[in-house]
Amino acid sequence: MKVFDWFRRFFKQRKREKSLPVPTYAPPYNQCVKRQRERFFLSFLIVLLISTFYTLYSAKQRIVNEELVHVWVAHQDVIAPMAIEPAHLKTNYFPRKNLPELYFHRSEEVVGKVLIQDVVKNEILLPHHFTQIVDTSSISTKFQKSFALTMDENWFEAKFPALSPHDTVDVLTTNPKEGLWQTIPVAANIPIIEMQYDAKGDKKTLVVNLTQDEARAILFARGARLPMHIIVHSSLTPDTNESR
Known about the structure:
This protein is an alpha+beta fold. The chain is 30% helix and 28% strand. A hairpin with a 6-residue loop joins β8 (179-197) and β9. The longest helix is centred in the first third of the chain and has 39 residues, at 28-66.
């Protein structure tokens, strides 16, 4: 009986010992490794979330950019100044990513506007191509593509005569090898804006009103150092267009 009692107490003691918490000790190295693992896992989770968000956002933007948008384009070549009519327009579809920030969605936004820049067939019509609704026969509309250019007297072979704002000039150039026997017209009937003088009143600068093509031709002749001349059409004799 005593033996059985001893075994009974022994097993109870073991059972009680197993139920008690066992004290543990973590070395500093293990604690450091554990913190590093937690930080690494947290960093990995943040990077994963950011990457997922960026991927979803990029996919959405790609879908939006590839979406075809219907815009109004020129049905034919249109020369400015011109009031746009429905016959000048047609619709076309372009990916949104290839379109500028501002364009026309409805024909009502285009019809009746005055074109101030030439457009070619299938070119997208944009706000900078137009001005406000004006009379296409007005002088201001006709000179939308004109601008002022200054021409110094030393560009030409002869000195400028006295000129008035109502005069017009023709600009000519000659072949240096042929002399005056081969004259090439560069620009004709250029309106004069004003004649400017230097401080001494000797050197003259002519301010003229011309188009982009006329300015390009004059500046090309000047850059090539070709001999240039002017023919002045006096406003005093408009009927005979007599040159002086």
